[in-house]
Amino acid sequence: MDESLVKINDLYVQYKSDNGAFGGVRTIYALNGVNLEIKKGEILALAGESGCGKSTLAKTLIRLEKPYKGEILYNGKDIFNLNKEDLRKFIQKVQMIFQNPYASLDPKIKIYDTLAEPLKINTKLSDSEIEKIVIETACKCGLDRDCLKLYPHEFSGGQRQRIAIARALVLKPEFVLADEPVSALDVSIQAQIINLLKDLKENYNLTFLLITHDMSVIKYLADRVAVMYLGEIIEVGTVDEIFSNPKHPYTKALLSAVPEINGKEKNKIFLQGDLPSPSDLPKGCKFNTRCPDVMPKCKELSPDAVKFSESHCAKCFLYN
Question: Has this prediction a pTM greater than 0.70?
Answer without folding.
Answer: yes
